[in-house]
Specification:
5-stranded mixed beta barrel; 7 helices; 270 residues; Purine_phosphorylase
Length: 270
């Protein structure tokens, strides 16, 4: 099976190598963030060994390298989800590859359902923590002791602070919250959402957590931002569906692009 060594070699030949201030993973409907990246070179996932072909509408399936606010970045436009093939480690090769290409931080974005009345559709929420309700872990089967990854500060406090400062600079409201990962692909029931809320969740979704675990395993610093596309089932009349997710995420994408650009400008050098 292809791995990050083959993928990295392919991408070096295509001009993707060199230090990167940040890698960005885009969620459903959030590919517009790519348009903010200047001097862009791009390659389809299907041309990169070991990269998955996203099987969900709203996920582009391309790797980009370019400049964002004068800083070199790598953008993974779209992801593979655990529910597509039952593989929670589907994004291991892409994340390992961007690390090998020179990134040491990753900004993960997603579309989510909100349990917070104050953070309705179109809101941006920086993740402070997560709850894994999926029954999956991408490190199951890993043989080394590196699998015992500390997760106390999975979402780096200094990167969260940089995101808050970036939002203030751009005049954007940035909420904070805990994200609960459900396996999907069916949306959560109202009872499941009530359970998640009682456990401390502010958002629900079907991604991000496996990438966060993998990124921490690989030694990457992680920040994550949700674009709220709907109220979760049973919250303020929420009855989510995928068309709504894509449509609202696309509208929130402009704010997310502004936030990401301001965040890239404020990143520490190391």
């Amino acid at each position: 099976m292809a791995n990050e060594i083959e993928a990295t070699a392919t991408l070096r030949d295509k001009g993707f190598a060199g230090p990167a201030a940040l890698a960005i993973v885009t969620g459903t409907g959030l590919g517009a963030l790519v348009q903010a990246v200047e001097e862009r070179i791009s390659l389809d996932y299907e041309q990169i060994p070991g990269f998955p072909a996203p099987g969900v509408s709203g996920h582009g399936g391309r790797l980009h390298r370019g400049m964002l606010s004068g800083r070199p970045v790598l953008v993974l436009e779209g992801r593979a989800h655990a529910y597509e093939r039952g593989d929670p480690a589907a994004m291991r090769v892409p994340l390992a590859t961007v690390a090998a290409l020179g990134a040491n931080r990753v900004l993960i974005t997603n579309a989510s359902g909100s349990l917070m009345p104050k953070a309705g559709p179109g809101s941006l929420v920086v993740l402070t923590d997560h709850i894994n309700l999926s029954g999956f872990n991408p490190l199951i089967g890993e043989a080394s002791d590196a699998r015992f990854v500390p997760m106390t500060n999975a979402y780096a406090p200094r990167l969260r602070a940089a995101l808050r400062a970036a939002a203030e600079m751009e005049g954007l409201i940035l909420h904070e919250g805990v994200y609960a990962w459900f396996s999907g692909p069916s949306f959560e029931t109202p009872a499941e959402v009530r359970m998640a809320g009682r456990l401390g969740a502010d958002l629900v979704g079907m991604s991000t957590v496996p990438e966060t675990i993998l990124a921490r395993f690989l030694g990457l610093e992680v920040a994550a931002v949700s674009a709220v596309t709907n109220f979760a089932a049973g919250i303020s009349g929420g009855d989510p569906h995928h068309a709504e997710t894509k449509a609202v995420a696309a509208r929130a994408g402009a704010d997310l692009a502004r936030l990401a650009a301001a965040f890239a400008a404020r990143l520490p050098e190391s």
